[in-house]
Structures are given as structure tokens and as C-alpha cells.
User: Fold these one by one.
Assistant:
Number 1:
Amino acid sequence: MMKLKKNIKLGKLNYYSLIILGLLFISPFVANAQKNKDKIDRTKKINDYSFDEKLENIANDTESEDVTYDTFLENIYDYFNNPININKADQIEFQNLGLLSLQQINSLLSYRRLVGGFSSLYELQAVPGISQSKAIELAPFFRIYAPEGGKLPPIGRLLFKGKHQLLLRYQQVLEEADGYKKDSLGNSTYLGNSSKLYLRYRYTKGTQISYGLTAEKDQGEEFFTGSQKQGFDFYSGHFYARNIGPFKHIAIGDFEIHFGQGLVAWNGLGSRKGSYVLDVVKQGYKVKQYTSVNESNFFRGAAVTLGQDQIQVTAFGSYKAVDANAIFNTPADSLEADIEEDGNVGSADIETISSLQATGFHRTDSEIADKHSIQQFHGGGNINYRNRFLSIGLNGIYTRLSESLLSTTNQVYSKFVFQGDRLWNASLDYKVLANKFTFFGELAYSSNGGYAFLNGMLADLDKRLQMVILHRDYSKDYQSLNANAFAESSNLARNEKGLYWGFVLSPLPKLSVNAYVDVYKFSWLSYLVDAPSSGTDYLAEINFEPKRRFNIYLRLKHEKKLRNATDNVTVSDYVLPILRSSARLNFSYSFNNGVRLQSRVEASRFDNSTSPVEIGYLVFQDISYTFPVFPLTLKSRFALFDTPSYNSRIFAYESDVLYAFSIPAYFDQGIRTYLFAKYEVNRRLSLWFRFAQTFKSDQQFQGSNNDQIEGRKKSEIKAMMRFKF
Amino acid sequence: MNPLYKAFSHNVLFNSSRIIAFILLLTLQLQIKAGNDNRNLGAQSAAMGSTGVSSSSVFSSFSNAGALGGLETMAFSVYAENRFLQSSLSLYSLAGALPTKSGNFGLGVYYFGDANFNEKSVSLAYGRKLFTGLYMGASFDMISYSFKDYGSSFSPTFSIGILSSPTDKLNIGVNVHNPIRLNVGDDEFDRIPTIINLGLSYMPTEKIHLAFEVEKNINFKPQFKMGLEYHIVEMLYLRGGVSTNPTLSSFGLGFKFSMVEIDLANSFHPQLGYSPHITLSFSK
């Protein structure tokens, strides 16, 4: 009897065990199936998600040809390829993604705590503050399931078994500019040829390890000859690791520092005023790898972050050669000076430098003479305390130049600009999360006695209304060499006081209004403004999305600033208002089968109170097609523009090859077209090609000085290859 | 000096003031848009402020070959325009459209001017529906300019047009005429103007058609146009419109019988006066 009972008991146990064992066996398959489903969903999303469109949204109100978004793009590519575990990531990781505002992150974390974790990415839209379209946009960057194996793989696997990538890009303007023309002796102003070359190798293992090498040759620079015996003009290398051993971050080689709100040290893209009106708060990791080709906006040395979740300490040191315009001991010395093989001047003969050069061009004899003429040392650090509601940091940076910076122009407006050979900056930065409000700011001080304060508040007033207020008070004598702060004029956080107020209103499901007003004043003179002055900026963008993938927006901008009157004959210049306005109407619509059309009409107005008012226009049509089976994407544009001069120029974002950016200014009268193709040969190899041409019907020349091209056309080709292995 | 004149300079004797005056008059005409750079022909279009790129009609062979793809029946139209009541500025046009299973074909000709100066053009257009919501087409145009006693030029060019319907009430049309800036004559500086028309048609109800358009001719500032058509009763359409640069207001009527349609339009320029337009159409 008992045996039977035992048997039965065992039997029951066996029966249940069998079920449990069965479930245990099946669950990995179920999980796999779910993972496969996730993979399938992601593949669909890869086809749906358009990096180009996202980039276009971010960049389409840029009003400068020099801003590049390659680090932003690379960052989101990294996360696209290595999605964040939505249930395990912390605040800082969400911040580093760059696609969520502080309020949205706060909301997401509260939701996660409330429900105990996300069980599906569809839940993203249930998070207050994240709309359905935002959730669809974010989904490819997150995952629910952790990758196999929770332990850290051995160091060999980390360092070599990840993904390798090789990029090569070639760019060429087809017409010959004046700087390349040879004179009777066979010499030209630009020593090199007009092609631009870019080569890059990068290794990544998830978002944990990254190392690589970048090399770039600008147009006009020599290549493996003359002044560039080492080949390319610019080389950059980096090694970066996160959460390895005792290090939260470690960077060796070239890296970026992001402290606070950018008042003491921030490399890379700053926060600008634009249609993403709430995007004025800086966030993310304090130390990041440097992979861009800006030849000055980075540190070279080493940086580490140590600590645990609540308290972290970052320290960095950097020592690199920088370009500077040198002044010699006596004029004669510059002739006798030790000219080294590569055309540089021996540093022993330099007495002072008059300016630091940041363009990175080394094409002409004088640019080559300035190359790497001085050394720059930086040392600094940050101590940060963080908990769920609060983040407070202390930042410091010390800069030392090997020669003194001494201005030779003695202009009144540069009276308070940094001069000398050493400088330090210190600041306190904070972020406070209180329910629907986020307070942020930084209070900074520079060693000459200047101050810079930035304080602001983000508020989720209602489901349909988000707001940001940002106040800045930068003293006229705040000095810094590495700041990159929110400002109207210089990003170096000086000589400006202003109040910025932005809001996003969504009165109806398909309609949203983004707007900002910025009122500011400069208490001291600036370049081309011979008096203290003030200004106002307004922007309103009304977005209407009648259905998915069909977007209409109207963007209105108005700017008023003061500037010296042109051509005035009085003893001292007086200032007059300059008004700049623009209105843009844009339609963009995508069909399900890969066709996308975009149409735009834009008008600009420029009034400098003396010359006649200028009104400029731009009309264009874009068409792009992604083939459904064959891996080819084609994009093209046909634009007609007509502006009286460069003053009433209109900027428009253009599709370009990977990591290259084209946001040219359209001015004068003419036609601009471009044709772009991306061909994914296989999983490893992708090719890009672009041809762009501007034709001006009312001009005989394009460009100016050494870059002037005779004729009415300017054409450029770009070709790029990416090899993954 | 009028760029068109330079095209024939190798044929020209300079020494007549009458010629110079005539040329100056032409220049004046071009500045006030009495020359024919207008791609939107037809009295329907003229009544609606000269919009037309975002609707399908027989004259889409000129205005938007893509929109030609939206026609469903065979049609033939005759059009006459007497600009500013000047016989030397009149325009006559014939156009026909033939829908077939593999796309729609259109053929159109127009003659503008008089014996002293005239512009003639023939356009052969093909447009088809690519998929629901998108029509695309192209037209091959031959344009000829003639000056009495001096000769004529004969230039081929082409246009590309797209008509898309993002929603069922909204059409967006684009047409680019002469995108590659083909020359008239030998001189590099004399080119047939490149013109882009970008327009929108909105039909909130079946009876109301609102059109907005911007036209940018490479040589001139953009023209902004707006037109409204109201299908008041079965056989009658009321139309009105306005355009800028120069400022013109227009109005018109359309009578539609079973296979015949008659459209009348009149546009008004503050200094130069009225221009009547008439179109007679036959469709199956």
C-alpha cells in the first residue's frame, strides 16, 4: 500500500516534474521564438526606420554649413545595432541614447517601477509623455530579452570578436577653383589636389568596447608628399570601454568630455535653438570616444571614470599639438627660423600666438606654417553624486598653452577675451527631478573672475503641453576654451544674458505646435557691433500629420539683432537693427512601397535698415525610391532658388552619403539638383554615390578668393564604401 | 539687351531703330509676363488664377504629364486666348488625350504671337499610374521661336511631372519643364527658361475644388497662385482665382453637357486690362 502511495506520490511528482521539465525545455524555444519574432519585427523596422528621415528632422533647421551630425548618427547606429535592455538600463544610458527628453526618461522609469518591468515594446506607448509615433520611433533601439549569458565574456572575445568596420570616402569638386591653378612657375596656392579623402576603421563590441583609427585629407592638402609625409593630414585614434573591470568608462587616445551643461567642457554637438524646442538640455555620458574629423574639438590623452552607481569620479588629461597663428620674436626671426622638413616652424622661435585656428585646413604655405605650432595641455575632472531624484556634479578643467595667446588687433570688443597661457574653469551642475518638473543648471567660474550661470526648468504641464524655460547669465569676462553652451552668439558662454522659453503644444491628435521665444542682450561689444546690444528670436512650427507618413509643416522664424550700420561715415559706428525672417511650407509623404516625395516652398526676408529689403525664395521637389527586393535606394532633388544676395540665403538639408552632411546655403538665382544612390551589395559591403550640381544663372563666378570657380556651374561627386566584417 | 535677340545676332543687321524698339517692347513684355512661359493652358486653368499642375485635364500634356495619367476618357480641346486684347499676344492651342491600358498619351500644340514674333510648340506626353496614389509622366517638347526676317530657332526639350494623392481629398502635383536648361540658338546665355510648378489641390467636398500653386521660372521671382472652383449645379461650374507677380485676378464659367464642355475665363491686370480665354472640349 505504502509503496503504491509512494509510487503515486512519485508518479504525481514525476507528472508535475515532467510538465515543469517540459516547460523548462520549451521555454528557451519559446523565448527564441519570441526573440525571432522580435528579430523579425526589428528587420521590418530596419526597413521602416529611416535614419535619413530622422537626421533630416534633427538637421533641417540648421543654418550653418559647418555643423556635422556624424557623432549623433553614429551614436544612434550603435544603439540600433545593440539595443538597450529596457528593463535593466539606468537613467544615464537612456540619456545617452539621445532620443528621449529628461521628462520622458523620468516617466519611463516611473512606469517601469510601477508595473515591475516591460513585457513588450508595445507598452512604450502606454508611458505617459510618449506618443504612439514616438513609441514606434523608439522601438528599434530597445529590447526586452537580455542576450545569452549574463557574465562578462573573456577579454579576448571582448577585444577581437566583435564587429569590425572599414569606411572609405572620396569627394571631389569637378570644376577647378582658383587656388589650384598653377602660375607660370608651376606653383599653386593650394599645394595638394582638390580631392577629399576619408578613411576609417572601427571595432565595436556592443556598446561596451570601441576602438579605431580615422584619417582624413581635406581638399587642397597634399598626400604622402611635401608637407604631408605621413600621408593624411589628420589622424585620430581611440580606445574606449565601458563597465570593464573597475572602470565605468575608460578612454585612451582621442575622446570627448561632456560635463554639466557645457559651461566648462563639452566636445561635440552643442544644443542649438531649433524646432526641437525642448532639446536644449544636455545629457549623456561624461566620457565618450571621439570618432569625428573635426580637427580641434576633442581631447587627446586618457580619461577614466570610477565609482559605483551613486558616486562616480571622472579624471582626464590631454596633451596635443594645435594650430595657431604664431608671432615671432622679431620679424627677421621668421626668416631664419628653423623650418623643419614638413614646413613647420621650430617652436623655440615663437614668442606669442595671436589666435588659435580651428578649421583644420593645411593647404597653403601659411596654413601649413600654423599647423601644430603650439601644444595644449588640459587636465580636469568631475565628481558626481546621483540618486533617483537628483544628480549633482563638481567639474573642473585646467588649460595650459605652450605659448601665450596675445591678441594683436587690440579691438575694444575683444577686451575680455582670453589671453595668456593658462586658464582654469570650475563649476557645479545639477539636475533635480520632481514629479512633472525637471530643474537643471550649471554655475561656472573662470580663473580671471568671470562667471557663467545657466538655470532652467522642463515641465510636463499637461498631456498636451510641455514647456522649457532656460535662463543664462554669462558675464562679459567669462573665459573658456572648451565650453559649448546654449547661447545666441558664441558657444563659449560669454557676454550674454537671456531668457529662452519654448513649448510644445498638441491640441489635437494630428496637430502639434513647437515654438520658442528667446530674448537676449549682450552687455559688451562684439564683432561688428560697437555697442552693447540686444535681440529677439521667434520660431513657430505647426505640424500636421493627416495620416501616418504624411506630414505637412509650416515653419515661421523671425530674428532681430543689432549690428553696425554698413557704409556709415561717422567717427564711431552706430548700431542698427537687422531683421531676418523666413517662412517654410513643407509636405512630405511616403507610400508603402518605397516611394517618398517631399515638396517645399520657402521665402526669406532680410532687412538691415539701410539697403533695400531683400526677399529670397526656394522651391524644390524631392523624390526617393527604395526598391523592394533589390537593395538599392535612390534619392534626388530638383530645386529652383532666387535670392538677391547671400544675405537672404536659405538653407536646406540634403541627403548625403553616410556620415557626410550637406546643408548648403541656397543663394543668388539658379538651379540645384542632386542624385544619390545607396547600394547594399551584401551583408558586408555597402556603396554610396552622390552627384550634386549648382547652376547660377545670374553669376559668372561661384565662391570667393582661393575657392572661386569661374563659370556658372559647381558640381561635386562623392563616393563611399563601407565594409563590415 | 533681350537675350532672345542675341540668339539671332549672327543673322541680324543692327542698324534699325524699329528693330531695337521692337526688341525693347519684347523685353517689356517678358517682364510683365505677356510672353508665353505659361505651362497651364486652358480656360479652366486661366479662370482659377492660372493654377493647373495638380489637376488632370487634356492640357496636362503641357502642365503635368503625370497628371495626364489620371484621365479616364479620350478627350480633345481647342483653346484660344487674347492676352490684354492684343492680337499680337494671342495664343491658340489644340490638345488631345488618349487613355490606353498601358498609360495615357497626350499631344498638344500651341501658337503664340503673330507674324513678327511667334512661339510654336508641340508636346508629346505620356503619363501613367504607377500605383494607387501616384502618377508619373514625361513629355517631349519641341519649341520654336521665330522673328520675322531674321530666322527661327528650333529646340527640343522635355518635362517631367508627378501627381500624387497622399489622401483622397488632396493632390499634390509637381512639374519641371526643361530641367537641363537647353539652349535656344548657339549662345550659352540664351536658354529656354526652366520652370518648376508645385501645386496642391484640395477637394473638401465633391463640389469644391481649391487649388494653390507656386511657379518658379528661373528668370523671374516666384508666382503664387490660388484658384477656386465651385460645381454649383449639374451643368455649371463657377471659377475664380488670383495670382501674384504680376497681380492678376481671374474669374470664369464652365458649361458641361454630356460630351461637350465650354469654358470661359477672363483675367484682369490693373494696368494692361482684360484677357479673355475660351476652351471648347470634346470627351467620350
Number 2:
Amino acid sequence: MSWITVIWSMTASACLVLVGTHLIVWWKRRSEMASLAFAITALGVAGIVVAEFLLMRASTPEAFATALRWGYVPVFVIVTGIVWFVHLRFHTGRVWLARLTVGLRLLTLILDFTTGQTLLHKQITSLGRIEFLGEPVFVVAGAEKSPWLFLPAVANLVWLVYVADATVRLWRFGGRENRERALRIGGSLLGFIFVATGFAALINYQVIHAPYVVSFPFLAMVLAMAYEQSLDVLRSHQLVQQLQRSESQLRDSEWRLNLAAAAADLGLWSWSAQNHTIWATDRVKEILGFAPQSELTLEMFLSQLHPDDRSSIEAGIVSALGGTGGYGEEFRILHPDGQVVWIVVRGEMAFGTDGQVMSMTGVIMDTTKRKQSEVEIAQQRGQLAHLSRVGTVSELSGSLAHELNQPLAIILANAQAAQRLLAQQPPDLAEARDILADIVSEDQRAGEVIRRLRSLLKHGETSMQRLSVNEIIHEVLGLVRNDLIAQGVTVFPGLAASLPQITGDAIHLEQVLLNLILNACEAMASNPPEGRRLTIATVHHNQAVRVSVSDTGCGLPPDPKRVFEPFFTTKKQGLGLGLAICRSIVEVHKGRLWAEANSPADGTHPGVGRAAGATFHLELPAAEEER
Amino acid sequence: MSATEGTVFLLDDEPGMVKALTRLLKAEGFTVQGFTSAKTFLESYRAEDLSCLVLDIAMPELNGLELQQRLTQAGILLPIVFLTGRGDIPMSVQAIKSGAVDFLTKPVKAADLIRAVRAAMQRAVDQRDLIAEMALLRERYSRLTPRQREVMEHVVAGRLNKQIAADLGTGEQTIKVHRAQVMEKMEVESVADLVRAAESLGLGKPPKPPR
């Protein structure tokens, strides 16, 4: 049995198997050019194996020369294949070196077929026989050297340089994971190429007399490449697994997200800036009033906006897109069936590497119920304030009745006087005219009282207007004048001459002042008449108007803040809500209401050696200057 | 005496009210002076004039009831008609007890006011008459000699001439003469009138003679 035959056939078939499998791989995935490169290389190695076999069995110089000549074809194929492989797998090979390598080998091939008998020999004269693996093989014994002998060596050198350079560059620039690769595949390639080409050169220069057995290092090289390729397959398999894992994690995450969104009743949406499409969950379409299966577009969304809110929303979107922050707005939309729905839309933007908006992603919520609750609460607060106001006004009922009584009494007296005057002979018409004029003005006065009373008792929405604080105080003093007289309270007004206007609701502010004044009177109820002094002062202080109502009564509890607590009262009757409601009114006006105990050393109330009383301060921000 | 003699004073802190009431009372023939503050009223008021006061209770600084007290403490007998916007019973009772003529609530009907003012003026007249009468009586009494005053005392006590003579230790005839002098000087015609005069003068009962 010929070992050479066996071994070389096995080697050739091994290479062909590799060619076959990797061709199939490449055929299945055309983009995997590395597989093609490898297949070609393996084919080349198979060719070398055949050529070597023929060389060893060549019995005549002519047969030898022919085999040697054709042997350079697979060499060229191998070189090209390896260069291509390295280029594809390493990505670090210098292209000009690659071209040079391939070019040189092409040149070699051309010269091989066009000059002499073979590239190496002008003429092979005789063959020799050597014992190799128990068989005789033929080698060149005598030959005329070709001038192109150096060319294959040069070409191989360049080849080595290319591969070495690519390997070194991979080592340096490829990163940690590529260093290992560089060492493994690059190193092995280098090693085997060096061995093969070195051996060949030695034989060519007839330094040693041996058959060409370059196929073994080439085979080893091919096996190394196969390993590298299979690693690649392994890697891609790992990637597939990772991908599957990621996909399953993604599915889990998506499931969790949907669950959270459903629990919070959120709709999720995402708008892409590139193709202007919107991805949205069914809940979004439900909230917006569209069918769940419909495609949502920006125009559809904008068409649902409530006409009153539309312009401001569009402006808001435009400004959000121009900025870097998120978007968060609450506004109304109008369903096709006319239903008004309040929604909150929140979104965050994603930017591309060029700083342009790529997409906006966010949530949408239906807050109609919450808004309704807010409206109801505001209504209830208004009702409570109204009730409290009615209660306060009813405390004044005696006073108000008196206020109405005065003009009525005057009108009656005047009218009856006029009757007598007109019954006289001659009637005093001039005086009668005066009387009628007085009647008219008294009637108007009564009308004013009724108007004030009606406006106080009216339950309407808060209407904010520009007001003068001093005017409000005068109005209130007019209402309580009688009460103050009846209780023997002396008023010391200290109103600043010029104050900025404030923005507020006249009725509500009157309610607050009324409450403060009545409280002050009640605090002084047990004082002797000379000790009932009520001071009302207004001051312009720090962009705000401050009203201070001071009394000389029984003072405050040790913690003055308590008086504002709901249901805190020192009166025998009463709910104790008055001051709490006042405070909430003041807060709506963006002001402050607080109480301080007067210090006995305060020189404002001389001669009264009793409790110094309390002062309530009301501060309201000045209205913005009118442009 | 004319019912419209004398001055009606009006005091109310509402100028409109003062004006209207002035017109009304003037149309009725009264002479009216109106004031809107107690201070200016007190400056103008002279106690000797025949006058009455229509007074509002609810006034700042000094309310009507306090003014009434002050006048009483100063010994000024000025008939007062109270006017008030809100009348409650305790207030009205206090006013009447303190000597007010009437207590009216606003709006006040002309007829009620005029009636009350007339009553007040009548009281003023009565007071004046009473004062005048007292002055007369005192003047007459001052004409009597001490002896005659003694006799008057006993006559007024209901003693017979005989008894008086015995009490005083003189003769009956002397007593008779004194008695006639007393009657003449006191300008009374009957003992009953003398008794009334004595009562008016505030002469007490004579001590009982020792037995």
C-alpha cells in the first residue's frame, strides 16, 4: 500500500470536504464572503495536494515540469484566497499590500506559463529519486535555472508582510477580544505560510533535496481558518441565543409595561419624526375617541382638540419640539359625539446624533373625572364662603335694618311735611320742590344699602377685577357704621393716601374685612366704652397693600395661628369657620392673612390699662401695572 | 296759651332727618331749632326758655339716654320725646322711667310726632306755670310775719281758733285777726286753698302740743 497515495488522497479529500461545506454556507448566505474566500483557499490547497502528488510520481522531466508549471495555479488561488480571507476577517490589512501580493503572484503565474519550462527552471535536465515514506519519489536533480527564480520568493515575502502587518494591526487596534484572535489565527497563518514558503524556497534554491510537501502546512493553515470560521459560526449561534434571550426579556418588559399602563389607565404613544407616524396603544385611541383599530395620525389628534384650547396647544407643541425638555400639558379635546374630555399628555423627546428630534414618546391620561372633582370642590368652597357670608351679613341684620330705616324715616317725614305745605294757602311750592329733591336722594341712599346687601348675599362666581383697597374699606365701614355706633366703638381710620390697585373680587374681600371688624367689636364687647377703639390702617409695602385691623379687646390665644383653624371659636354661638374661610379667600387672592397680639407697650392706645388687644393683617399683592 | 308757643329742639346725628323733621314741625306752626351734635345743642340751650327736645337715641359720642341723664343731673327740666331707629322694650322703659314724655320709633308718622311734641310743649308750659306759681306762693309767704306763719301752720293743721289761741298763748281775737291777715296776704279765699298752698310750699305738719 502506498502511504503517499493514502495520505495525499486523504488530505485532498479533506480539503474538498471543507470546500464543499463552506461553499454551501456561502451559497446560503451570500454576504458571508469570508466563507467563499475560505472555500477558494481550500480548493487551492486541494489543487496543491494533487500537484505535489503528480510531482512525486512524475517519472520524466517533462511530466515533472508540467506538474510544476500547473502547480502554480493553485498557489495563486491559495495566495489570493488567503489575502482575501485576511482582508475580510481582520479588516486591518493594507489594501495596497494586498494588491501588490496578488499582483506579484499573478505576474509569477503569467511568467510561469510564458517562460521556460517552469517558472523556476529554464530546463529540467534530469530527475533524481529519493526515499520518502517508504517509496521512491522524484525530485529535480539537474536543471537550468530560470532568471525568475527570485520572483516567487519575493512574492511570498510580500505575502508574509501583508499578513504580518494585518495581524499586528489587529493586535494593536482591534481591541481586547481581537488580540486573542490576532494571536490565534494571524499567528498560525503566519507560521504556516512561513513554513510552507520557506520550505518551498529551500527546495527551489536547491538547498535541500526533497519533494514539495507544502501541502501539509497549507492544510494546517486551512484547518486554522476552518477553526476560525467555525468559531464564527459558534459566535453567531451565541448571538442568536442572546438575541432570543433579549427578545424574551423584551417581551417580558413589554408585558410589564402594558400591565402598568393598564393599571394606571395610561395610553402609550410614540411619534416618529422621520416618517411622521404615530404608534399608539388602543387606550390612546379610546381616550381620543377613535376606533381601536384605526391608524392614528398627528392630523387626527389635532382635529380632536377643543377649539378654545387649540391655538395654545399647538403653540405648546411647537415650543416643546424646539427645546430639549419634555412636554407636559393638560387640556380639553372634543369627541365626535360632542363629549368634552380633559386629558393630560406627557412626552419626552429622543434626539439623533445630529441633535435633531428623532421621536417623541409619552403617555396620555383621561383626567375628566379629576377635573370634575376639582370643579365640584371649587363650587363647594364657593358655597361655603357664601354661607359664611350670609351668616356674617345676618349678624349685621339689625344694623342694616337701621341703615334702611333712616332714609325711609326721612322720606316719610319729608313727604308728610310736603303734604301740609301743599295744603296751605298759598302752597309753598319752592319748599315742596326742595323736599322732593331730598326724598329722591334719600331713596337712592336706601337703594345703595339694598344694593350692597344684595351683592353681599349674592352667590356668584369669583370675578377678579382691579380694585382700590381704600374703597372696599369705606364700603364695609358704611355697612357696619350703625353697629359700631350701637356698640360704642370708635373707629380710627389710617388709610394711606395713595395705594396701588389690587386684583380681586370685591364681595369676597368685603366679606373678609367685615368678618375682621365684627370680630374686633366682639372682642371689645366687655371693655368700658372709652376702651373700644378700632383702628383700620392701609399701607403700601413691598409690592403689596397691607390692611391692619387693630382692636383693644381680649386678645388672641397663646398660639395666634389657632384662630384660623376650622371650628375654632371662642364665641358661645358660631361654628368658628369665619376666619378659616377668610384665609381660603385670601389665598385664592394670592395674599396672606395673619394675626398678632398687640404688645402692651404699644403706644397707640394710651390711657387704656387693659389687655392690648389684637391686630389682624391682610396683605394683598399689587396688581400689575397696566400697559 | 298757644300750643305753638316756645321752641322745639331737634337733635339727631342724621342731617337729613333734622331737615325733614324741621320742615314737618314748622309746617305745623312750631318754632324749630335743629342740631346734629349734642355739644352744639348744649351750648345754645337756655333753661329759661319754653322748649322741648326731640332726641335721637343712637348717636355717636353721646347717646340720647346719656344726654337725658346729664340734663337731669344738671337739674334741667327739659321735656324729651325720644326717637329711635330700633326700639326695644328695656330701652323704652328706661327712657320713660327717667322722665321722657314719649318714645317713638322711626319711621315716625307725622300725627304721632306732632301729638308727642304738643304733649311735650304742654308739659313745658305746665312746668313753667308750676314754677311761676311756686314763685308767687313763695313771694306771698314771705309777706307773712313769723307770728302769722305760726298761725298758718296751725290753721292748716286743722286747729280751731280757740285751740290755736290756747296753743300759742294769746287771745282768740288776736288769732282771728292773724288768720284774716294770712288769708289776705296769701290771697286765698278758703282754708282748703290755704292748705293746698301750704302743701305746695312744702310746709310740714306742726308738732303736736304737749298735753
Number 3:
Amino acid sequence: MVTPIAVFQKKDGRLALESWNPQVERDEVVERTGFKFDASAAQPTAPMTGRERDALESLDPSGEFAAEVRT
Amino acid sequence: MSNNWTPFSYIVTNLARQIRPGELAFSGVNSTLPMLACLLAKRAYDFHYTYLNVAGGVEPVPMKIPHSSSDPAIVRGSPAIFANEDFYDLCARGGLDLVFLGCAQVDGRGRTNVSVIGDWHNPKVRLPGGGGAAVMMPTAGRVATWRTEHSPRALVE
């Protein structure tokens, strides 16, 4: 499960926090989530690699797809 | 490398990161972000995987990225075309390793709501419905879903 601030993985039948967007505090993820979850193994999400950034730029050079994502 | 994520880049990149080497991954309708994620993975990662989409394309090489994930433009370059019944059948036989499925709500157990908000018989909001999710969710190897909203009304107990 991916949102703008978190990545969850299923663990022992429940969603557990795998990583969070380091631009927010981990506590904000907890506050904005309606279910309880295990965050004991969570780490800040690794930054985009250069290749990921270049690939995304090639897919959305004018930002039109990005403009459609409203949170 | 700075961490200046946008909601768009965070979702697309982290959906792409769910794809594993050698997998067969599928993106469906109303799934522009997973479509972009699958195409990102093709361009950014060295490992091979097979991308199958709801428009019927296999390993497409689109000239222009369409806004709709079921646009025929996402079929361009495919060596074969899959009809709907083909990929549902493939999934039911355990042939899809990863499917990207949308949702309006998800709960702590990873169950998704694509039907209604509120009472079933008198809903506050009637949602589009699951499309192929009812078939794919229980039969795919893994399911990845996403929401552009992270709030207690989207991620529910």
C-alpha cells in the first residue's frame, strides 16, 4: 500500500509500515492513519536514484501527470 | 541525492519499487500511477520483468504516454495482445505475480473497499466497483494498491 507519505507491507495478516516519506515525521503517519500498525521495522524511504528520477522525468516531462495528483 | 519527493514522485516510484526481477506485473483500469510505475521500472531498473496491462498490451513501448491506463496507446510495441478473458484466466491460474489494484479505502488487514461509503442499502457514496479486483485480488501472487490521500477516512480501521 503506497500513499504520498508511506509504504505499507502486509505482515502477519496486517499492514505494517515499511517506510515513510522523510519529509514528514513518522508520528504524522500514525496520526493520519485510521488503523493501528506495526512500525517497529520502519525506516525513512530511500531517496530516488538518479535513474528513477530520469525515468520519471522522461515519462512526465511537462508535469501534466504530476499536476493531476492532488492530496 | 536530495529527498525532495512530491506526492506524485513518491507514489509512482514506490509502486515501481514493488516490482521484482522476473515477475509478471499487471496494471488495470483507472490506474495511471501504476502504469507510470511499470514504465518507470522498465526505464530505471536493470532487471527484466514482464509488463501486462488492461488494454491488452504485453511489454508495450508507447510513443506517447496516455492519461488513461486503458488507452490503446499503451499497447503500442506489444508482441502480443491479451484479451480481458486471457489475463483474468492467467491470474486465476496463478500466472500474475503482481497486480496493481485501486481502492477508495483500505483497512488494517489490507482489505479494500471499492463499493460504497456508508450503508450498503443507502450509501452516502456509491463507488465505481471493483472491476476485476474480485477475481484478481484473491488469485494474484501479490497485490499493490495506492491512495493519493493519506487520512483516517481512506486508511480505516
Number 4:
Amino acid sequence: MRLNEIAAQYGDQMDFYCVYIQEAHPDDGWQVDSNLKDDVIYDTPTSIDERADLAQTCVLRLNMAMPMLLDDMNDTVDTLYNGLPERLYVLDAGHKVVWKTVAGSPGFDPEAWADAIARFLEENETP
Amino acid sequence: MNQIDPHDDVQIAYPADWRTIPPEKWAGMMMTPDEYTAMRDARVARERKAPRVGAPAPNFTLERLAIDGARTGDTFTLSSVKGRPVGLIFGSYT
């Protein structure tokens, strides 16, 4: 899993966290062909427990190695960062945004994220 | 489909005109043109409120799951790791 590889590569220099947010393509919402083909068919969670169950499924099925944080049912952090459907950010040590993917699934680019991280760390190397 | 509309004041990865989406991609999206337009408008509105590059990242506190994804009841606050750069990944299983 590429995201795990990137986190492992740079984990000694920065921290990585996943935020589990509202479902991008629930079966009772905007379903997509690729999910039907992969048998990823789940309705929108209606409680934090249901969302947590899906988050656990995600962690286990995708073998996520980074800490997983669970967004609340008000989608608070998703809204703050416009994370839906999937998004990558880089924050500096003062937690200023230094890079983010273009919003939207087509903008989700792990390789560009890795390049941005490498560039940021090189430019901010501690002597 | 990675077209960034230059007329938007924010960048999102969905083109303003659904007709520019390749037919095979459009078929997989399983939505009507009106639904697409409404979705895109909502995404643009959300992006206008998101932190821009150079802006402070909003602080937050969320439940941190166990390594196997189980609930723990423990929380994590972003500001608790200030002083370290952070990579954030947002997503869901579907």
C-alpha cells in the first residue's frame, strides 16, 4: 500500500495520521461502478459505532499502518479540511499547511504527496 | 479527468462541464448531469472554507483507533504534536 510506504519512508522525520471521514460512495448515496465490481457495498453509517465498524474494516482490508482517527458524525474535521472524498495534506512543524492535493478524487495523488514531503523535508532540513 | 477549472477561485479536480469527462469515466460515475453539477458546486463551496497553502491547519481532537482499527475511547489532538511536521490522509472505505 503506497501510503504506508511513504509513511514508513519519512516516519522518522514527521508524523502521519489518517482521518476516517464520511463515506464517499455509500450504496444508498453516490454509488460507483468500481465499488460494485469490487463488492465494496455499504450503506451510509447512521451512528458513530457504524462508522467505526467501517473504519475498522478499512484498516484491516487495506492494511493501514498509520494511526486512524475517527471523525465525528457531524463530519467536523472533514468539513474543516474539505477531506471528502479523499485528500492528502502536508503540515509544517508549526502546523501551517505547506501542501495539499487538489480537492476531489481525481486530485488524490500519493506520488505528488511523496514528492511534496521530500521537497519540504529537504528545504527544512535541521542542520 | 484531472482538469482544473481556471475560472474557479479555488481548485477542485472535477471539471465544470461534465461533457468534458471521457465517456468511460462518466459511465462509471453513475450520476445524472444535474447531480454532477450539484455535487461539484457543493465541493467548490466546501473548498472555499478549507485552509489554503500557507494558512494555519485547523486544530482538532478525534478518537484514535487501535492498530487493528478497534475503538479505544482515547483521543488525539493535533496540537499535541506541534513541533513535528505532519502528513494527513483523509478518506473512507467506499
